[in-house]
């Protein structure tokens, strides 16, 4: 079964093709600028501080940027850079780290996902060998009373912990975002161990938690954020689509698609969750836009973050896979409120967190500054900084590829121009302290690996030929790594 996702009506005039080629090359040059600085000052390190030009260890010193960037380098046709990066990756020893525990979720999406994608695109089996070696180490983190993984895992001492809070605490996204990578790794290695470990998380969550009104888990499919890995039961945390929850829902629908639509439970869970999300999370603001709130049948908090802005794109993808026009229209409404957080800013760049006033609500509990910003923008800024996150760009990219409408590519171009004007520095691209002020408000010396794996990739692909990493041929991971949809699955590995 091959469900068509991409539009077939892309404009093909010569003038537009020249314009798109010019824009793609401009993005490619921007990537090369950042990559040259990383290679010169921090090659093999996790990150580079783009302001001080110092290497930074944030993901165990294995080279998060190096691995996360591989498929973007390949897609952009940077052959020399890819060859040099591959040589460096082949030297990584995952049995040793910087002495700090590994965040298992981040290790999976950045390293394992990046290596799998690099293998699928290039055919170089070294990448698959490294992905398997690291996955085997991370599988030890799943050896708990329930099979739900530790949040943190020390590869040298073989001990688990949480990042903060009680030792056995973990969150929804960080237990439910292995399914895509581990499914594909089981396919490539013909070893079901990885897939079974990831699917075991669903077994436990569904078995140990019964939705019951008046409890922490009160709405079917609308899962609280935090759970205990020893009991498998939810503890607290209002349901939402932002950080701590986001990719759990994303992987339900995407793993179903990657399996050739055979993993029916994934689809059933997605449909149940989407029903509850539509009923409780989607909220109309005072500006009549549709927002994504935090909460359930016990009440909502009208606060959101940039992480939630991935959802319009994922929802649009799901609507195409399921031939659901009504849901596509809803996804577009969510896209408009997400894009609005960028387009209404003087810099054309959006904030990390923002709040809104639900339609019909009294604004007396808001600060005067918040009321003023709602009148001006339709929302208020809660955390006004920007760290080059990709989620809004990602969702716009999906709408471009799904509809074929050039206006979405133009939106991404405007954002890219703003990023260059406000964030470009000698060491790559820095964050902004305040998107209302831009560069003059101060820069943040942070350039995470997702800038290379997601932000640059989605911007570039908005201008590359639509058949480059077509949505009909690939499924993107939550870290922006494309996995081939064409690998058959008959129910066994």
Descriptive overview:
By secondary structure, this protein is mainly alpha-helical. 47% of the residues lie in helices and 12% in strands. It contains 17 helices and 21 strands. Strands 3-4-5 form a three-stranded antiparallel sheet. It has a three-stranded antiparallel sheet with strand order 6-7-8. Strands 13-14-15 form a three-stranded antiparallel sheet. Helix 15 (391-403) runs parallel beside helix 17. The longest helix has 29 residues, at 14-42. The two termini are 19 Å apart. The mean pLDDT is 96.
Order of the strands making up the biggest sheet:
3-4-5
Number of helices: 17
Helix and strand composition category: mainly alpha
Summarize the main sheet: 3 strands, antiparallel
Query: What portion of residues belong to β-strands?
Result: 5-15%
Mean pLDDT: 96
- What percentage of residues falls in helices of 4 or more residues? 40-55%
> Compute the gyration radius: what is it?
21 Å
> Low-confidence parts, pLDDT < 50 over ≥5 residues?
none
The number of strands is: 21
How would you describe the shape?
globular
Question: Terminal Cα separation, in Å?
Answer: 19 Å
Please render the helix and strand layout as text.
Blueprint: H1 14-42, E1 47-48, E2 55-56, H2 64-68, H3 70-75, H4 79-89, E3 102-103, H5 104-122, H6 125-139, E4 152-154, E5 159-161, E6 169-171, H7 172-175, H8 179-189, H9 193-208, E7 226-228, E8 234-236, H10 246-258, H11 264-281, E9 282-284, E10 290-292, E11 294-296, E12 299-301, E13 303-305, H12 311-321, H13 325-343, E14 353-355, H14 368-377, E15 380-383, H15 391-403, H16 406-423, E16 424-425, E17 428-429, E18 431-432, E19 443-444, H17 450-461, E20 474-476, E21 482-484
Antiparallel strand pairs: 1-2, 3-4, 4-5, 6-7, 7-8, 9-10, 11-12, 13-14, 14-15, 16-17, 18-19, 20-21
Helix pairs in contact: 1-17, 5-6, 6-8, 8-9, 8-10, 10-11, 10-12, 12-13, 12-15, 13-15, 15-16, 15-17
């Amino acid at each position: 079964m091959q469900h068509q996702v991409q539009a077939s009506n892309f404009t093909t005039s010569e003038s537009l093709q020249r314009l798109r080629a010019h824009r793609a090359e401009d993005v490619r040059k921007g990537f090369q600028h950042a990559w040259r600085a990383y290679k010169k000052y921090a090659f093999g390190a996790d990150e580079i501080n783009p302001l001080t030009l110092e290497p930074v260890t944030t993901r165990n010193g294995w080279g998060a940027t190096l691995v996360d960037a591989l498929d973007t380098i390949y897609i952009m046709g940077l052959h020399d850079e890819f060859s040099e990066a591959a040589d460096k990756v082949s030297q990584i020893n995952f049995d040793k780290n910087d002495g700090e525990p590994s965040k298992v979720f981040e290790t999976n999406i950045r390293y394992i996902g990046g290596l799998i994608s690099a293998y699928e695109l290039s055919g170089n089996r070294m990448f698959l060998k490294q992905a398997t070696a690291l996955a085997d180490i991370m599988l030890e983190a799943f050896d708990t009373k329930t099979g739900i993984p530790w949040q943190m895992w020390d590869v040298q001492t073989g001990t688990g912990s949480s990042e903060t809070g009680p030792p056995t605490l973990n969150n929804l996204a960080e237990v439910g975002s292995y399914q895509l990578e581990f499914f594909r790794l089981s396919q490539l290695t013909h070893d079901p161990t990885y897939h079974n470990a990831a699917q075991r998380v669903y077994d436990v969550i569904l078995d140990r938690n019964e939705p019951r009104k008046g409890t922490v888990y009160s709405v079917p499919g609308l899962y609280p954020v935090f759970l205990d890995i020893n009991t498998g039961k939810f503890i607290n945390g209002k349901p939402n689509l932002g950080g701590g929850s986001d990719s759990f829902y994303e992987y339900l629908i995407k793993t179903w698609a990657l399996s050739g639509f055979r993993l029916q439970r994934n689809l059933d869970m997605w449909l149940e969750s989407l029903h509850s999300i539509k009923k409780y999370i989607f909220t109309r603001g005072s500006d009549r836009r549709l927002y994504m709130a935090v909460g359930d049948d016990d009440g909502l908090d009208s606060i959101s973050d940039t992480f939630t802005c991935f959802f319009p794109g994922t929802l649009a993808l799901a609507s195409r896979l399921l031939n659901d026009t009504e849901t596509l229209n809803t996804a577009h409404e969510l896209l408009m409120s997400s894009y609005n957080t960028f387009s209404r800013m003087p810099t054309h760049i959006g904030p990390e967190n923002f709040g809104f006033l639900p339609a019909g609500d009294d604004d007396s509990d808001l600060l005067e500054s918040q009321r003023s910003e709602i009148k001006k923008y339709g929302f208020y800024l809660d955390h006004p900084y920007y760290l080059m996150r990709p989620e809004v760009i990602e969702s716009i990219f999906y709408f471009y590829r799904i509809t074929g409408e050039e206006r979405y590519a133009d939106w991404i171009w405007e954002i890219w121009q703003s990023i260059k004007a406000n964030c470009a520095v000698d060491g790559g691209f820095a964050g902004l302290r305040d998107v209302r002020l831009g560069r003059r408000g101060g820069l943040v010396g942070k350039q995470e690996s997702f800038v290379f794996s997601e932000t640059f990739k989605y911007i570039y692909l908005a201008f590359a030929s639509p058949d480059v990493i077509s949505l009909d041929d690939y499924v993107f991971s939550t870290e922006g790594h494309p996995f081939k949809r064409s690998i058959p699955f008959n129910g066994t590995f």
